[in-house]
Amino acid sequence: MQAIGTDPFTLGVASGDPLPDSVVLWTRLAPEPYRSGGGLPAEAFAVGWELAEDDGFQTLVAQGEVTASPEDNHTVHVEVAGLEAGRPYWYRFRADTWTSPPGRTRTAPPRDSRPARLRFGLASCQAYYHGYFTAFRHLADADLDAVVHLGDYLYEYAVNSKAGDRNYTDRVLPSVFNREAMTLDDYRLRYALYKSDPDLRAAHAAHPFIVTWDDHEVENNYAGPYDQTGSPPEQFLARRAAAYRAFWENMPLRERHRPVGPDMDLYRRLHFGTLAQLDLLDARQYRSDQAYGDGWKRPGPESADPARTMTGEAQERWLLDGWHASDALWNVLAQPVVFARRRDRGDAAYLVNMDAWDGYPASRERLLAGAQEAALDNLVVLGGDVHVHCALDIKRDFDDAASPVMAAELIVTSVSSDRDGADRLPLWDAMQAANPHLRFYNGRRGYVILDLDDQRARADFHTLPYVTAPGAPVTTAASFTIEAGQPGLRPLP
């Protein structure tokens, strides 16, 4: 094994998917992250790891050694077991003479306990070339149990030498990024670019991440085996296999999620005592192709077809069965796109977004009927994708003003995608008039903090005044509560 001449921990550390007795630790060896292979030869390297009760690593509770293989692009995923529930731990890695920066993680509460409180940070959509990841710097400083990332962790599009709207003047990105990601090497390099961001590294080092994906981890608006341009499915599936492989390599995920060719088992369920059950959906791999093409279109018989699915039959049944069996006070559904109905205007010529659940109304109806049958009193749906903050009441029947509210939906804006944005966008008035269940709308960048306890859920929508320059301050644009047993959003002054 060759010596490693320069620091290989340039992409930091991460942890994820906390269980009461276990957590996943992640790092990658990449002394030259912007080169294929990270600047290492195609051979295996030994990586030591330590987990401690304190940030000074005086009381070690677990340690070991794993292999960073070239087949996995020198990433490692350590599944540490036998841990104490509901407490923080600190971890680090060693390779050759180098030691990684430390990370802090946290296990989930005991399965049969009722924790007093849970706090999750919500994030989505971080186009590197549209601005800085300042939202993650603020999330790193927050007191959280975990960050739930709702997709579009990276974008497949080209990034020029100035990093687009970041407009670098002190560095030049290599030309390898100035093309759309298509191959395994392309996607691996794109993750290296994104993970080189110091604010994203800080958030990963501060909290465990719980991740799902949306479309841009592969290609915009893809659906199952179909890409946006109508390529033969077998051609697109080769690209999907490359993207899924790079996603698994670079996320703090367990070995059981390792993809097999173009397929990856990503949907899963995490319990946080009996206070919250978190179900994470895969809304891309199994969905029917979008009706009438992508974008905002007039719905019709094709989109209304009851055979159409957002989740696939197996995942849908898994979710409904999990809701029926749930013993949690709060059932939180984490998925990437807008669930509630959204029309662009109130007249009969309205359009809906065919890439969201509006393009799959029968699939949505099956979930709403299943939630009603399971008597879920406290369902909270999380989403992202649309680069705006939204708070929506989910009605059992959106056409009936008297229909009861079944759940609340919290849509988190982007970290950076679509640049700085604005508090009030031109389409707000029309959207609010057409969708009376839409309670809040803001077009700035930012994140959401979801705070759960026995009495209520609280959502704080945080925004940044800009992302096209670093270091923006953060403000709270709006806050809502959902009282336990009383579905529906209530604004806080």
Radius of gyration: 22 Å
Structural class: alpha+beta
Q: Can you tell me the residue ranges where pLDDT is under 50 for at least 5 consecutive residues?
A: none
What name does CATH use for the topology of the largest domain? Purple Acid Phosphatase, chain A, domain 2
Question: Any idea how many domains?
Answer: 2
Task: Label the CATH architecture of the largest domain.
Answer: 4-Layer Sandwich
The end-to-end span amounts to: 61 Å
Beta-strand percentage range? 25-35%
Question: Which descriptor suits the 3D outline?
Answer: globular
Under CATH, the homologous superfamily of the largest domain reads: Alkaline phosphatase D (PhoD)
Mean pLDDT: 97
Domain Phospholipase D N-terminal: 11-107
Domain PhoD-like phosphatase metallophosphatase: 120-461
Protein name: Alkaline phosphatase
Organism: Streptomyces coryli
Tell me what the structure shows.
The chain is α+β, with helices and mostly antiparallel strands and 493 residues long. The chain has two domains: 1-108, Purple acid phosphatase-like, N-terminal (Immunoglobulin-like, Sandwich), CATH 2.60.40; 112-491, Alkaline phosphatase D (PhoD) (Purple Acid Phosphatase, chain A, domain 2). The chain is 17% helix and 29% strand. It contains eight helices and 24 strands. The chain has helices spanning 134-140, 184-195, 198-206, 233-250, 301-304, 313-325, 361-373, 428-434; strands at 13-19, 22-28, 45-52, 60-68, 75-80, 88-95, 98-99, 103-106, 118-123, 146-149, 209-211, 268-272, 276-280, 296-297, 330-334, 352-353, 379-383, 389-395, 405-411, 421-422, 438-452, 456-464, 475-483, 486-491. Strands 9, 10, 11, 12, 13, 15, 17, 18, 19, 20, 21, 22, 23 and 24 form a 14-stranded mixed β-sheet that branches. α1 (134-140) packs parallel to α3 (198-206), α2 (184-195) packs parallel to α4 (233-250) and α6 runs parallel beside α7 (361-373). The model has no long low-confidence stretch (mean pLDDT 97). Residues 120-461 form the PhoD-like phosphatase metallophosphatase domain. It holds the Pfam family PhoD. InterPro entries: Metallo-depent_PP-like, PhoD-like_MPP, PhoD-like_sf, PhoD_N, Phospholipid_Metab_Enz.
